[in-house]
C-alpha cells in the first residue's frame, strides 16, 4: 500500500505537519487540475494538519499515464491508496469534480470498519440530488478550452502555448468524460458531517444546488457561501482554512 500512496498522494515540503500531525486532510482537485492546486491551503493550515492532495493520472508527474475516465473506478483506486486512517481524524475536501470524487471516496471508506471520514467538505459542485447532468462533453478541443477558460481556474497562459496545451488536453478530455458518465451512489449513504462551500456567482453550481448536499448524509450539514465565481477558493484560502479548523471533530480540534 505504501507504493500506492506514493503514486496517488502528494504532500508539500515546508507546508503542513506530515505524518506526525494531529489530523489528516485529503484534497481532491477539479477537472483538469493537479495536486499542486492545494498547496496554498496546506500552507495556510500549518503544522497541525497533514495535507495530502490526490494526483490524478494524466498530468504533471503522471503525464504518461492514461486519465481514468470513470469516476467510480477513480474512487476505488484512491480508496486503495488511502487505506485506513491509522486512528487520526481524517477530513476529505474536494472542489468541483473533486467534490463528487471525495464524496464517492467517503462512501467507500464508510463501508470499511472504522474507515469513514470524520468530515466531508464539498466545494463548487452541485449535489447529486440536483439532477442537472453533466451532458457537456465538448466535441472539439476549442470548445473544451473555451469552457475551462471561462471558469477561470486554469492559468490562461496554458491555452496560449500550443505545446503546453497539447500536454494538458488529454487530462481535460478524460476528466470531462468521467463527469458526463457519472451517476452517484444513491440514497443517504453517509453518516459523517458534510459541509458545502460555494461562490455566490458560480455558474456551475447555484447556492440552492450546493445546499442539496444535505440529502447525502444522516449527519450534520451546513452550507457556507463565499463571494466569487467557480474558483472562489483562490481568493478565500485563509477563510477556508479557518473554517475547516473550526469544523474539525472534537478529537482533532482539541
TrEMBL record:
Record-linked PANTHER family: S-ACYL FATTY ACID SYNTHASE THIOESTERASE, MEDIUM CHAIN (PTHR11487:SF0), THIOESTERASE (PTHR11487)
Protein name: Thioesterase II family protein
Pfam families (UniProt xref): Thioesterase (PF00975)
Every Thioesterase TesA-like domain range: 26-248
InterPro entries: AB_hydrolase_fold, TEII, TesA-like, Thioesterase
Record keywords, A-Z: Hydrolase
Alphabetical list of SUPFAM superfamilies matching this protein: alpha/beta-Hydrolases
Family indicated by similarity: Belongs to the thioesterase family.
Domain of life: Bacteria
Amino acid at each position: 500500500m505504501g507504493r500506492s500512496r506514493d503514486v496517488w498522494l502528494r504532500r508539500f515540503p515546508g507546508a503542513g505537519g506530515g505524518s506526525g500531525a494531529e489530523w489528516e486532510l485529503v484534497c481532491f482537485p477539479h477537472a483538469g487540475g493537479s495536486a499542486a492546486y492545494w498547496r496554498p491551503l496546506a500552507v495556510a493550515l500549518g503544522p497541525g494538519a497533514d495535507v495530502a492532495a490526490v494526483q490524478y493520472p494524466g498530468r504533471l508527474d503522471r503525464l504518461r499515464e492514461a486519465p481514468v475516465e470513470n469516476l467510480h473506478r477513480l474512487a476505488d483506486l484512491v480508496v486503495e491508496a488511502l487505506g485506513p486512517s491509522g486512528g487520526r481524524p481524517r477530513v476529505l475536501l474536494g472542489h468541483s469534480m473533486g467534490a463528487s470524487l471525495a464524496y464517492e471516496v467517503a462512501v467507500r471508506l464508510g463501508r470499511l470498519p472504522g474507515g469513514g471520514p470524520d468530515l466531508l467538505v464539498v466545494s463548487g459542485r452541485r449535489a447529486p440530488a440536483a439532477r442537472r447532468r453533466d451532458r457537456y462533453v465538448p466535441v472539439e478541443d476549442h470548445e473544451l478550452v473555451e469552457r475551462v477558460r471561462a471558469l477561470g481556474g486554469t492559468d490562461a497562459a496554458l491555452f496560449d502555448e500550443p505545446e503546453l496545451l497539447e500536454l494538458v488536453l488529454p487530462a481535460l478530455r478524460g476528466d470531462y468524460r468521467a463527469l458526463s458518465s457519472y451517476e452517484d451512489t444513491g440514497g443517504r449513504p453517509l453518516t459523517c458531517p458534510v459541509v458545502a462551500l460555494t461562490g455566490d456567482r458560480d455558474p456551475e453550481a447555484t447556492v440552492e444546488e450546493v445546499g442539496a448536499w444535505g440529502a447525502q448524509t444522516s449527519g450534520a450539514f451546513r452550507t457556507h457561501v463565499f463571494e466569487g465565481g467557480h474558483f472562489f477558493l483562490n481568493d478565500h484560502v485563509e477563510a477556508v482554512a479557518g473554517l475547516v479548523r473550526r469544523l474539525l471533530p472534537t478529537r482533532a480540534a482539541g
